[in-house]
Amino acid sequence: MTINRESFENQPFFDELITPNGHARGYARKLISYLGKLDEGELASRQLGAELALKQMGITFRVYTEEEGSIDRVWPFDIVPRLIPKKEWERIESGLKQRVEALNLFIDDLYHKQQIVKDKVFPAEVLADSENFREQCIGINPPLGVWAHICGSDLVRDDKGEM
């Protein structure tokens, strides 16, 4: 597969691999070089293979809709890795850790003092109507205060490439 930089169309969004002048970003050069050596269709074939493997292994997540109820979907996966330079990752990592800590504190408050409800920051009716709130967990203290063992956080860049 060859990457034809001349025909590469720049769009009004930040491209993590290619600069506006059509060259590989410094941290992406090895990946772009590797991808450029693949035969035509090889990347698509690998993507399909990865998606089939995820499906066969049952790696799914549940989507809830009013029309169809709950639906299991295969976990979205891009065969091209997302490259994040070390310095940028250190900043992102700090924010992700902070987000998970806040989530665990939020859940812990709901199962203990419910201060967030008393302060009217979180609506009492949302908690009362929640099918996922487990009264059996009121007063429980999980090891290390970890309620959320898995957290999916979206990383989104603006048109300048900032997260």
From TrEMBL:
It holds the Pfam family CP_ATPgrasp_2. Residues 81-163 form the Circularly permuted ATP-grasp type domain. It comes from the Bacteria. PANTHER family: BLR5612 PROTEIN, SLL1039 PROTEIN. This is Circularly permuted type 2 ATP-grasp protein.
